[in-house]
Amino acid sequence: MKNFTQILCVFLLVAGNIFGQQEKGIIGTDNWLHNWTEFKPKSVDHGEPTQILAGNITEDTKLSKRYVYLLSGSVFVTDSTTLTIEPGTVIIGDYATKGSLTISKGAKIIADGLETDPIIFTSNRSVKRAGDWGGLIILGDAPITKFGSGSVASYYTQLNATIYKNSNYGGENPASNSGILRYVRIEYAGKRIKNAGYFNGLLLASVGNETVLENIMVSHCAGNSFEVLGGEVNLNKAVSYKSNSNDFKFNYGAQCNLSNSLAIRSPYVSNSSGARCLQVNSYDNKEEVDFTKKGTLVVAKNITLITDSDDLKSDINQGLVKEAVYVGHNASLEMVKSVISGFNPAVLFEDKIRVNQENLEKIKFTDMYFNNCNGNIFVENNMNNEDLENWYGNTAFFNVYSKSNNSETFIDLKNKRRPDYRLRINKIIASNEVDPDLNRIDD
């Protein structure tokens, strides 16, 4: 009886550990990346455009799967209009005219694709590259911490009174509804604009929480894959693949739930400015922010952040790999049951953040899996992170640390057709103790 009890206890302990590991990172009984994602978009031929989208869309319009659409110049959906896009529709951004699609404040987009028939935004060049066209912009009337209203007018090359009006965002309605984006792919976006930086793959500015944002993949973007300015946003099953800039960027009072989502970085395409998987800021310019409003808060649950590298140590030594997560002053982040694998280091705090209980309670890491990172959590420009390691290494946070390569850590990330980035739990040997070799940044 005693032996049986001991065996049962061991079984329950092992089962509990496996279950706990299985909950970390992206989850699902099946690989939800199947069917609708595309990790080799260069090899896909969508045919020639048969219809042109240009100017302003001022009445309810439906795009049909039977056509391939060319997005020419700056296209706006305005005047409380709804743009509906059928599953399987292909919209091609024009390189020459910097094609982009903006859903203005008060208008809606219903892009409700299917797992087996996603909606695709892509490039019209024969040899596709990041930054071939603009991107998709959705503007709402949810709150933002900027004084007055915000504007994205700097993205557009031709400016007039109508464009200024249609490029404004911000208001007082956190429950505003800008429509649906579901089973949507955005490829090769992020066109560079003189004196304005880069378009993003998907820019959500003051978007409200009634907007549905699920199963969205942004790949090979020259700007940020996903950028959220203000608003209250729920992003579920969002995928960023080999972005030149940040995968997910939040700013100006964004209140966001980011769940079951994935970012895959390549050391060879990231720009030199220190692009991250997850960047959480409260402002760029302190003088333009109303601090009586809610600061940026991101709750990230079941997120997987990976550096795709065959020789991580060499790439780190060459300065090609940076931190996965960056947290700015006055911003709050709660990261739960997530995986950070292969970064230098895992997390970096802005140097304005003082390490004290008040600030650390606004930046939480719980049930995390830190794997193969050159250092865990640091303050910018400070090599001594003992206080941070003592805080987040406390067993009460249930964080685990490991040194395994990606092929041992994830189920099947080398399968370009159907990669599976869920944890390979049967080969993980994790510990709640911080390994001294994990708690440093090499010189």
Verbal overview:
- This is Right-handed parallel beta-helix repeat-containing protein.
- It comes from Jejuia spongiicola.
- With 443 residues, the protein is mostly beta strands.
- It is built from 6 helices and 34 strands.
- The protein has one domain.
- Helix content is 11%, strand content 33%.
- The strands form 5 sheets. The chain has a 17-stranded parallel β-sheet that branches. The protein has an 11-stranded parallel β-sheet with strand order 2-5-8-11-17-19-21-23-25-28-31, with no helix packed on it. A two-stranded antiparallel ribbon has the order 12-13.
List the main descriptive attributes of the protein structure presented here.
443 residues; mainly beta; 17-stranded parallel beta sheet; 11-stranded parallel beta sheet; 6 helices; 11% helix
Oligomer state of the chains in this structure: single chain
What structural category do the secondary elements indicate? Answer: mainly beta
Note the main sheet: 17 strands, parallel
Strand portion = 25-35%
Low-confidence stretches: 4-21, 427-432
**Strand elements, count:** 34
Brief write-up:
By secondary structure, this protein is mainly beta.
List the topology elements.
Layout: H1 2-22, E1 51-53, E2 56-57, E3 61-63, E4 68-71, E5 74-77, E6 82-85, E7 90-93, E8 100-103, E9 108-112, E10 119-123, E11 136-139, E12 150-151, H2 161-166, E13 168-169, E14 179-187, E15 192-193, E16 197-198, E17 202-205, E18 212-219, E19 226-229, E20 232-241, E21 248-251, E22 255-265, E23 278-280, E24 297-307, H3 312-317, E25 325-327, E26 332-336, E27 339-341, E28 347-349, H4 357-360, E29 363-366, E30 369-371, E31 377-379, H5 386-392, E32 400-402, H6 406-409, E33 410-412, E34 420-423
